[in-house]
Each structure stands twice: as structure tokens, then as C-alpha cells.
Amino acid sequence: MATFKKIDPANMAETANLVQVFNISPDSTEKKIVDFFQYCGDIIEYEIVPVENGFEALLLFDKASSVDTAVLLNNSRIDDRNIVVKKYDDAVKEAAATTETTEAAAAAAPSGTSKLANFIADTMVQAEQLSKSIDTKLGVTEKFQLLVEESKKLRDSVDAKYGISEKTAKATTAINTKIDEIKNNEK
């Protein structure tokens, strides 16, 4: 495990709001890492430290529920690596129970898409199916197209009654003529 200096979990009364991230690519930037986890919840403090062949990060969230969300990102991809995300307490317990390096832990992580990625993909498919079903039942697309057509007819009716297009064309011609006159007088 990396040695964190900025955030010292040993001095913290409550470590339930901490997440440790392993197997971060050496190509990953601090901004990219923080932005990646920011949607999980407010990050109060973080520390990213270099380790052999990359980085590890310790993130302190404002709520324990944010930690649960962040853990769902385990095996997600940042740059060229699938990251390993664990609750800090679990990571400490595992480190104490085994002498495996973080690279071995990352290699043991399941390959392929993460549970979160599968969940998002399934949810998107279900949302698309639901929207098509609702559209079929309620005729939303058809009603919207009718509304657009009615709006065009109203526009044409107002234009015909008040001659807006014709008046605009005449005004544009008059303005262009005046501009040409001014340009010719300047020469």
C-alpha cells in the first residue's frame, strides 16, 4: 500500500468516507481522476501518490453513501487501465491479510466490462424501449409533428395578413440601397 502523507487515516476517527483507488495509469492526470469520481459525491479531500508503474489515490467523500457509489466504479477504465476501487477499511484489511502487490490485485480483477458499465448499458436499452413504447401508445412524435405543421401554418397566415416577409424584403432592399449610396458618396 502507498504511503499517504496529506490524508493520514490513522489520525481520522471515522474512515467510512474513504475510498482507495489502485492501478491508476501513469498517464492519468490529477484532474481526470478527480473528475471521474466527482459525480459520486462531494470530495472533501484527496491525495494521489506515485507508486511503481502508476498511481494510487485516497479520496475522502462528504458522505459514506458516496463511497458506496464510488465502489461501483471498480474495474472501470481510466486511460489505459482498469482501476481497482475499494473502501479504505476493506483495502487495509486485505493488505494486512495478504502480501500481494497492487499489480497482482489489479491482475486478479475481472476483465471485461464492469458491473456499472453493464448496468448503464442495460438501463439505456430499457430507456430506449420505454420511450418507443410510450411514443407508440401516446403518439408523441405524431402530435409533435402536427404541432410543428400548425405552427408553420400560423406563421404563414400571420405573414400573409401583415405582409411581414414582403415588408422585410423591401426594408432590406432600401437599407442596402442606402449603404451603396453612402459608399459611392465616400469615393
From TrEMBL:
Top-rank taxon: Eukaryota
Key words of the record: RNA-binding
Annotated RRM domain residues: 17-90
Coiled coil: none
GO molecular function: RNA binding
Classification via SMART domains: RRM (SM00360)
Protein name: RRM domain-containing protein
Biological source species: Anaeromyces robustus
